[in-house]
Design goal:
42% of the residues lie in helices and 22% in strands. By secondary structure, the protein is an alpha/beta fold. α2 packs across α3 and α6 packs across α9. The protein folds into 3 domains: 89 residues, Winged helix-like DNA-binding domain superfamily/Winged helix DNA-binding domain (Arc Repressor Mutant, subunit A, Orthogonal Bundle), CATH 1.10.10; 100 residues, Periplasmic binding protein-like II (D-Maltodextrin-Binding Protein, domain 2, 3-Layer(aba) Sandwich), CATH 3.40.190.10; 102 residues, 3-Layer(aba) Sandwich (D-Maltodextrin-Binding Protein, domain 2), CATH 3.40.190. The chain is built from 10 helices and 14 strands.
């Protein structure tokens, strides 16, 4: 029984021979030897059980069966070329559904303001944006791009740095007026603390720049939540002290609504990354979005 390869092997070469009116001319167009082209046509005739070409030393003509086969095969080959060109065109043009996950604070402070321009620029891209602070599984959940801050595990995913963000300890002026300002990490145990539930070291806050002695503080937070925006809101209300990436509270720091604490003990800034599954055959929509984010972030905050 013929398999799919049997059905199509030699078809394009046969059509090229007919179009070029000769084996040598077809071989030159295809980048093969004339003997290879001749053998492929002979194999095609053997599989079909019919002679397609009348050959002499000087002329080449189609048999009646060959004429019928050429007319059908030529359409198939042209359709295949059109499909290939269409796919290549799609590959070069950003289009289709793009699924993105970003931290809530990144959406609020950055992406929400950038999306309209992206959507106007790339009118054929549809977006599904999930603003969430949970640690999503990029591949299993079908996301095209995920933006996350922190030190990355070796997951085999591609990570492109967008910016750097400081990890800050902050409180409102009202809270500090009522409760005093801690001057060392150890003094935090006497304060009301607000923590983030997705933090890897949930019961320990660590301080210290590279090369300096690390200070670890065991904490018993009054509130633990899974949203940086909730941390921010409660801290702004003067309830307690929390730790936030600077990208989550830049406006509040600039306005004085929050005050940075323990800055001389501050840890090394963390990277904010666009994470996606692979560079191989990267979809144009993904490349366009990541390039767009990179350009915007480079203007909003430093990457080093």
């Amino acid at each position: 029984m013929d398999n799919n390869r049997d059905l199509f092997d030699g078809m394009a070469i046969f059509c090229a021979v007919v179009d070029a009116n000769g084996f040598a001319a077809a071989a030159e167009r295809l980048g093969h030897s004339a003997s290879h082209v001749s053998k492929e046509v002979a194999r095609l005739e053997a599989r079909l059980g019919a002679r397609l070409l009348n050959r002499t030393t000087r002329t080449l003509s189609l048999t009646d069966v060959g004429q019928t086969y050429y007319e059908q095969a030529h359409r198939i080959v042209e359709d295949a070329r059109e499909i290939r060109n269409s796919i290549l065109s799609i590959g070069d043009k950003p289009m289709g559904l793009l699924r993105v996950s970003v931290p809530v604070s990144f959406a609020r402070n950055y992406l929400d303001g950038w999306l309209p321009e992206f959507m106007r620029t790339y009118g054929d891209v549809r977006l599904h944006v999930e603003a969430s602070d949970r640690m999503v599984d990029v591949v299993a959940e079908g996301f095209d791009v995920v933006v996350r801050a922190g030190r990355l595990d070796d997951t085999g995913l591609i990570a492109r740095k967008l910016m750097m963000s400081r990890l800050l300890t902050v409180a409102s002026p009202q809270y500090l007026t009522r409760n005093g300002t801690p001057d060392t990490p150890g003094a935090l145990v006497d304060h009301t603390l607000i923590d983030f539930s997705y933090r890897k070291t949930a019961t320990v806050w660590e301080y210290g720049r590279p090369g300096a002695k690390k200070v670890s503080v065991s904490v018993s937070p009054r509130l633990v939540c899974n949203s940086a925006d909730t941390e921010l809101a409660v801290a702004l209300a003067g309830v307690g002290i929390t730790r936030l990436p600077s990208m989550a509270c830049e406006r509040e720091l600039a306005s004085g609504a929050l005050v940075p604490l323990l800055t001389r003990f501050e840890e090394e800034p963390i990277g904010v990354y666009a994470i996606y599954p692979s560079r191989t055959h990267l979809a144009a929509k993904v490349r366009a979005f990541v390039d767009y984010l990179s350009d915007k972030c480079s203007k909003a905050a430093p990457t080093d």
